[in-house]
Amino acid sequence: MTKLEAVIQPSKLDAVKDALMEIGVDGMTILEVRGHGRQKGHTEFYRGREYTVDLLPKVKVEVVLDDALVEKAVAAIVGAARSGKIGDGKIFLSKIDDAIRIRNEERGAAAL
Amino acid sequence: MPRICRRLLLACLLLIPSLNIAVAQSAESSAPAISTAATVSPERITTLEKQVADAKGSADNAWMLVSAALVLMMTGPGLALFYGGLVRKKNVLSTMMQSFAMMAVITVLWAIIGYSLAFGSGTGFIGGFHHLFLSGVGAAPNPDYAPTIPQQTFMIYQLMFAIITPALITGAFAERMKFSAMAVFMILWSIVVYSPMAHMVWGKGGILNASLGGRFPTLDFAGGTVVHITSGVSALVCALYLGKRIGYPSEQMPPHSVVLSFIGACMLWVGWFGFNAGSALSSGSLATSAFVATHFAAAAAVVGWSAAEWILHGKPSALGAISGAVAGLVAITPASGFVSPTSALIIGLVAGVACFFMVFSVKKKLGYDDSLDAFGVHGAGGTIGAILTGVFATRTINPILHDSEGAALSLGFVDGNFGQVFYQMIGVAIAFALAIVGTLAILKLVDLVIGLRVSNEDELQGLDVTQHGEEGYYWEASSL
To answer: What is this model's ipTM?
Structure first.
């Protein structure tokens, strides 16, 4: 099993969600987060005082997948979230030891 | 046959229990008919006249009660939201509480002594004690102030001004003053600064009172000197005395919700119709004139502030637009019942641009931390408005000054009275002096007895938790 964490632009969430559902990903967790990579922030003015906002709002999509689905899922997210500009986000993949369904204690891929 | 018709008409008129002005006028025009109609006694006419006066009184009273409610709405929720949105999350409740507390504390004070000191007869500088505990303030009008409404209505209307004035000051020391010290400061300030200033400008015998024979007749229709200069200047004194917030100006302290401020500012705009048009103390055409001037000045000031911001900073911000509206409303306050709609546009535009520069550059250059710009908007806007009132006030809008033969005297510069600007400056100077001296003395006293600022730890943690034991935006698992 693999955990896929994708940090994307908030405006791309719907497209990414639809693309993942289309390839058969049933569940996901969405977090509203703030952060930045190479993308610079912007400045805001309140009554003449300048504020630098460098932690920008992003959405993080977390999905744990059967290994067979990982490359399809990555392709789906890249396809849906890419605009070609700095700030499109990143995808992180990591191995998962086990998964447990709380309702009936099913384990492994069956719990996903 | 025509005579029967006339009698029928007359009978109908007399049977209508609550006569309005229109009916009263037609009753007057049929006066010759009354004299020929044998059935109408002089008593009937007296009754009729009394009913006409009662109808006028009822109309005025209705508007004044609505106005009083509108002015209260300016403090809560208007100002509470406006200021509450501009502070950081950890201080939202304490900031709103400071305004709300005025609604309670100043009301009690007003009943005990405040009204008497402001509007009781006394010296040229302060009223006397004969209205203590509102004694003698009842349903009968006070002909010196407002001859058509109960004095109790006048008293409660004026109370709303006494509430919002100290509430305006709280913007200067937001996020760092102890609640206890704030409460004591405001009680003393209301007695030492507000009541005397209100008495000088509006009270019978006050030295600045234009309509009741003051030595230096200052035109102040709805409180440019009394409300905005006193509060704005006192705010600056507070900001300088208390010092900057920890971390100012190196740390970021953006408003936590311009949305709250936006709602608050819009409520201030609406409430201001009660503030200015209500200051006609009647529901006639003068109220309309003040209403129109108020609205026009606010609109022009938004245009002025936003245009300046757009040109110099590239974008017209929402916070700038609402700040401009408040600046325009402040500036038109003393002028509202004396100027034409066009003059109101000019006053608003000037105030919008001038207050923009006060807030954007002057504050930065002088380096004081007037957290929410109480001085930049109310002090500066009030001063501009007070002086421009001397320029634009005209007898064609409000003939308040008369010579011995009853002819209306000229008011401002536009009427050819070049000396009025000088009197306005005297009013402004007295308001500045009283605010500076009074505020400094009270701050010193409260600082010695209670201490003005919260501890550094409390300031960093936020005043909501440390002063009130609660949070504006509570988040724990149990609140889900």
So the answer is: 0.75
CB contact under 8 Å between A47 and B320, yes or no, is yes
Per-residue pLDDT at B257 exceeds 50? yes
Contacts of A47 in chain B (CB under 8 A): 319-320, 323, 359-360, 373
Inter-chain CB proximity B373 and A49 less than 8 Å? no
B388: closest CA of chain A, how far (Å): 25
Q: For residue B307, what pLDDT band results from cuts at 50, 70 and 90?
A: very high
Whether residue B162 contacts residue B110, with contact meaning beta carbons closer than 8 Å, is answered with: yes
| Interface check B254 vs A, CB under 8 A | yes
Query: What range defines the domain where residue A98 resides?
Result: 2-111
How does B67-90 read in b/e, with b if 16+ C-beta sit within 10 Å? bbebbbbbbbbbbbbbbbbbbbeb
Q: What is the mean pLDDT of residues B46-68?
A: 95
Task: Please report, for chain A, how many H helices and E strands are present, in that order.
Answer: 2, 6
**The tokens of B421 are what?**
């600007």
Kindly report, as residue ranges, where domains of CATH 1.10.3430.10 are found in chain B: 76-473
**CATH number where A8 lies:** 3.30.70.120
Structural domains counted in chain A: 1
Indicate which of A47, A50, A51, A52 best probes the interface with B, i.e. most B CBs within 10 Å of its own CB.
A47
Q: Which residues of A touch B258 (CB under 8 A)?
A: 46
CA–CA distance, B300 with B12 (Å, rounded to integer):
49
Helices (H) and strands (E) in chain B, counts: 21, 0
The answer for residues whose C-beta is within 8 angstroms of residue A20's C-beta and 6 or more apart is: A28, A61, A63, A73, A76, A77
What is each CA distance from B31 to B17, B28, B35, B41, B45, in whole angstroms? Answer: 19, 5, 7, 12, 10
The residue to which tokens 């109101």 are assigned: B344
Predicted TM-score of the model (pTM): 0.87
Q: Cβ separation of A44 and B320 shorter than 8 Å?
A: no
B313 vs A: CB within 8 A: yes
Q: Write the class of the CATH domain B76-473.
A: mainly alpha
Q: Is the dihedral of CA B452, B458, B460, B465 positive or negative?
A: negative
User: How far apart are the CA of B252 and the nearest CA of chain A, in angstroms?
Assistant: 6
Say whether residue B206 is in contact with chain A using an 8 A CB cutoff: no
* Chain B contact present for A104, CB below 8 A: no
Whether the CB of B67 is below 8 Å from some CB of chain A: the reply is: no
Q: What is the pLDDT of residues B320-361, one digit of tens each?
A: 999 999 999 999 999 999 999 999 999 999 999 999 999 998
Helical axes B258-276 vs B42-73, angle rounded to 10°: 160
